[in-house]
Specification:
Two copies of one chain form a homodimer. Chain A is built from 14 helices and 17 strands. The first copy, chain A, is an alpha/beta fold.
């Protein structure tokens, strides 16, 4: 087949954008061998075309005029690597409307406006791919959409934030939350303002995208139940260790009886579980479905180069499948209900501080029993005249477990509100 | 886009074939949504069309006449799920020659004749996909060929045999090789004749396919250096545990300075390495390359249903990309030299039994030093008037390490030939 030149446009030419250009140049032969096409960046939108760049674009490629890129008939596919909601969102809409395929690395944009953008792409008969918007180089979107088409994925478990995973791995080796945060900042994993990571906001946006793709129904960032790691204490980490588990910030997307629940929170993960092995700043996503049982993908979930490889993979896939029906359709093809959070069920771990007096244990266990919540494991430890209770609870609906704990908290012997985490085995 | 019917042929209608049919029927809507096409099995080649089948094919679908399938103009893509070299190989060649795309689940055939079959597919302008030929449902071939096109993958580490991984996980918890084998047989993981698994033959065929795809150069089954797990003893497993490692049967494919080395052998794997977390009968493949650093895919590497999902994924991908240039070309596009095995370098672990006499340690260490092999760790243990020496050696070429150990073995104080394994961290 004769090789055809395909003109690529870039929105943004920073670390990711210039790496994409470099990979397209240096990998041109590999790409041609795989697809029969040569991909070449012909336009790149930047604020200041005169600024020095790590991998310079060709003459006349950089422009500060979006219309020049949009209206260039040589631009067939555009990679959006500028980030942010606006103007990136408007640009992507305009490009799709103009019949250009788009590849986006923009987590915020896809998590917020994905459904509209997929529909716009469908209507225009062009592709929108977004592998790089979640977990960088880990090809989880492609695997979900192309390899697991008939696998009825019903659960997605993800460690999708490297910063918090680094911090929790660090706390496992001893040290407080504050120590772990300081170390993550020293390594450059955490920003000076770590809010987006430690509150689970970053992970929630990624889980919204993954759940949307896995279940074919729109899940917005706002639909994700979210709890961060800020309240975690060294005592929780060591209690987990005593149970043969680690604490991780885990995203859990569940499809149950046609309803969807997506949540991000710290969870106890059994040491023998594949997610427990994800150490440091890496990410991993486990996909559970019929027939496949479970497939786990692990790798670097962030970084400019890593993100650029996913953008290039998407460009290659767009070029390699244009003209066929492959992935022609909207990733959101149905509207599933949201599972009422109280109905979401799991095994749980609860950590309580109580006065060391007769009757406390009886009270705690009777309240649990009244809610039909059964105790799998119980450890009581003395602690300065008080005691800590660590409970592992058999699978039960969150509503029942929370209800029991609310009643338990009202008991005067309970010194602090119980700390509740799901358990993943 | 109007939906188009695509006729599918099956070579074989056993567990995998009938599961493929069932998935195509039950997943028809999902597939149409993803690709715009409806896939329907129109012919399936079997020995005895009258036999009862777990998921019956439609009327007139089963045939014992290959020509009827090959010459059926309604058959556009054929899934080869019959296994074996012959007649499967002849059938696949004829089908490609007749312009039918082929999806194969046949490890033996692809590991032996892959290069010729890829070339035949290229010449005929049709696709040959083979995801199911290696690690069942784990989409490693797709990820290598479509996501990592420009990632210059230079190393593939794989736990690609579930039987031996189950056995080694079992030995870790105590027990001999014989106990572990008996248990694997009781679970149905190991055949009555476990040769293909325990000698590394099965893993070598899979690594040959993975190395071929990863490096773009033909690696045959015979090109894979191979050593099984039969000589492993409980003492080796517990020595590994003392070093914070586990023993796994690992496939290692290396691209170094334009030369390829592929080997399968037991190796010590650090507990913090992602491959160490692969427990029981699961498989995992780690792909290391530029920019991606490392991506690990883990999941069930065997099983009829799991294999069927990979076949269906390939069918969907063939249909979704036919008519484009995607993956039009031969997976073997270059001819790389084989790295002389003596030049392959690694960290190593050596286990020796020696007489407990003065001078032994000096002899061992001086022979290693003479070959410029440096000792990272040394543990000596008394053992019934004799002693065991456990050595961890810094990275060195296999030729030097083997040379030193040969000289050490000649020393009369060495009671048994040293046992040498690579170390993976």
């Amino acid at each position: 087949m004769a090789s055809v030149d395909v003109g690529i446009g870039l929105l943004g030419y920073g670390t990711v954008g210039s790496s994409v250009n470099r990979m397209l140049v240096e990998g041109a032969d590999e790409i041609e061998r795989a697809t029969g096409h040569r991909l070449r960046v012909v336009r790149a939108l930047v604020r200041d075309p005169k600024k020095d760049r790590p991998f310079p674009a060709g003459d006349g490629v950089l422009t500060s005029d979006f219309a020049a890129l949009r209206d260039d008939p040589d631009v067939h596919v555009v990679a959006e690597v500028m980030g942010g909601i606006s103007p990136a969102g408007e640009y992507v809409r305009e490009l799709l409307g103009a019949g250009k395929a788009v590849v986006s690395a923009n987590k915020q944009l896809i998590a917020r406006d994905g459904a509209e953008l997929f529909a716009a792409a469908s209507a225009a008969g062009v592709q929108l791919r977004f592998e790089a918007s979640v977990c960088a180089a880990i090809p989880v979107v492609k695997v979900l959409r192309e390899s697991l088409v008939v696998s009825n994925v019903h659960r997605v478990l993800g460690i999708v934030n490297g910063t918090t995973n680094f911090m929790l791995s660090r706390m496992e080796r001893g040290g407080s939350y504050a120590d772990a945060l300081a170390e993550a900042q020293a390594h450059g994993y955490a920003e000076a303002d770590p809010t987006d990571d430690v509150t689970g906001a970053d992970a929630a946006a990624k889980m919204a995208i993954l759940a949307t793709v896995a279940f074919g129904s729109r899940v917005r960032y706002e639909d994700v139940e979210r709890r961060g790691i800020e309240e975690l204490e060294a005592a929780h980490v060591s209690a987990a260790a005593d149970l043969g588990m680690v604490i991780r910030l885990v995203g859990i997307a569940t499809l149950l009886d046609g309803a969807v629940d997506v949540r991000v929170q710290p969870a106890l993960v059994d040491r023998s579980h594949p997610l427990a092995a994800v150490d440091g700043a890496f990410n991993a996503v486990m996909l559970q479905g019929d027939a496949i049982r479970e497939i786990t993908l692990e790798g670097p979930g962030a970084g400019g180069l890593e993100t650029a490889t996913a953008v290039v993979a998407d460009l290659v896939s767009v070029v390699g499948t244009s003209g066929t029906g492959f992935l022609q359709n909207d990733a959101c093809w149905r509207e599933l209900d949201r599972l009422p959070p109280v109905e979401w069920s799991s095994e749980f771990f609860a950590h309580l501080e109580v006065s060391d007096r007769p009757g406390v244990l009886a009270h705690v266990t009777s309240r649990l029993a009244a809610h039909d919540v059964s105790v799998a494991q119980l450890v009581q430890r003395p602690a300065d005249g008080a005691a800590t209770l660590e409970l592992v609870l058999h699978r039960a609906p969150l509503g029942e477990v929370s209800g029991a704990l609310r009643e338990i908290s009202a008991f005067p012997e309970v010194l602090r509100p119980p700390f509740l985490l799901p358990v993943i085995r």
